[in-house]
Predict the structure.
Amino acid sequence: SVDPKTIAKLCAEAVKDDPSDPQLRFLLGLAYSNTKQSKKAVEVFNELAADVPQVDFILGALLLKSLKRSNPSLSDAKRALYWSRRAADRGGRLEQQILFSFLLNNSRHYKKLPHQIEWRAEGMKRLHQSANQGYAEAQFFLAEIYYEGFEPDDEEQTIVDERKALKWYRAAAKSGSVRAQKTLPTVLLYRHEGRVHSKDIKEAIYWSRKVANSPKSKLSKYEKETTETRILELEALLQESKLAQSGDGESQYQLAKLYATGRYVLRDRKTALSWLRKAAKNDHAKAQFELGI
């Protein structure tokens, strides 16, 4: 493979021969950015922005990255946000994500700069706009903010809104976000400590099955086994009233484990032992082993 610095040198020579060619200048900017010569890349893209509208995205991303140096100035931040806003306003989802991610998260790293409150307010506004347009990643990001908490004004204030979080997790999951589909069952099952509603269990099973059966999930062997175990546990919990007559030893064993550990339900050792004995009577090997039979 050709050394990136060699490519940058060749591109620079080509631009000298034909400085009016926007494609050559674009390649030169990319070459500089690949060799970590961000200042030169910014200069090239800055000159090119008037001729090629799409350059604003790269320029904004480079400038936002440059803010990670120890003492960024307000003018640096404003210039980065100018190009990033221009790129986001063209409607590209990736462009929007980079901008609201910076406004909501990365801005916290630049405590010496003013406008922190304004940036976060703009970030939330843009995030809601993207989420309402059906952008799954924006919906998931918004759900995470409402679920884990967000600092709107300062570090002492936190917003946690479980209802809104659940709304956006569901929206993201329906829009195809695998992360939301993986997260949603946990959110559903633990929102009522120790007292899970059957409606929540059914929905958790639905999303768990979707994750387990979808190639997009790209589950590891361990993740797949864990997901399948959770489905068995939830089905056992959902069908608790029918188990006495059904004689399903595996479901009885899974239910015993739930009561023994307090997973999804209030911990109850007596109930756990009762289900373990029923599973053993139905020839469940693990249950018999644990009872010493």
